[in-house]
TrEMBL record:
InterPro entries, A to Z: RmlC-like_jellyroll, RmlC_Cupin_sf, UGlyAH_Cupin_dom
Pfam families to which the protein is assigned, alphabetical: Cupin_3
Domain spans labelled (S)-ureidoglycine aminohydrolase cupin: 38-110
PANTHER family to which the protein is assigned, alphabetical: (S)-UREIDOGLYCINE AMINOHYDROLASE CUPIN DOMAIN-CONTAINING PROTEIN, CYTOPLASMIC PROTEIN-RELATED
Name this polypeptide is given: (S)-ureidoglycine aminohydrolase cupin domain-containing protein
Length: 114
């Protein structure tokens, strides 16, 4: 087994999902997640994609995101709305609460640490 792992979605079957009904604000967003790495230590890495819609988010985990395509607006509770698009990178820290709104189908690379 090699210690090098390519982030290649052709090697993984995507998981399908959607926001929990009690978190949905508008639209009918659908998720696809290609979880490339999953460690017992609570580390995850891969690709996530969502179609347009808006939902509430609450983070207990730490997540690094790099937007590959699309446009989304992330609004922190009591804070400013931030538009993210292809090429943008950011971290959502534990305790982040707010809304994620996908304006154009958005795909991101992620690394999550529980």
């Amino acid at each position: 087994m090699t210690a090098f792992l390519s982030v290649d979605i052709k090697t993984v079957e995507p998981e399908s999902g959607a926001p929990a009904p009690d978190r949905l604000i508008s639209g009918d967003p659908k998720f696809r997640t290609w979880n490339i790495e999953e460690r017992d230590s609570g580390l995850y890495a891969g690709i996530w994609e969502s179609t347009p819609g808006k939902w509430r988010i609450v983070y207990d985990e730490w997540e690094f995101c790099h937007i590959l395509s699309g446009v989304s607006v992330i609004t922190e509770e009591g804070g400013a709305a931030r538009t993210v698009k292809a090429g943008d990178s950011f971290v959502l820290r534990p305790g982040f609460k707010g809304n994620w709104e996908v304006l154009e189908t958005t795909r991101k690379e992620y690394v999550i640490k529980l």
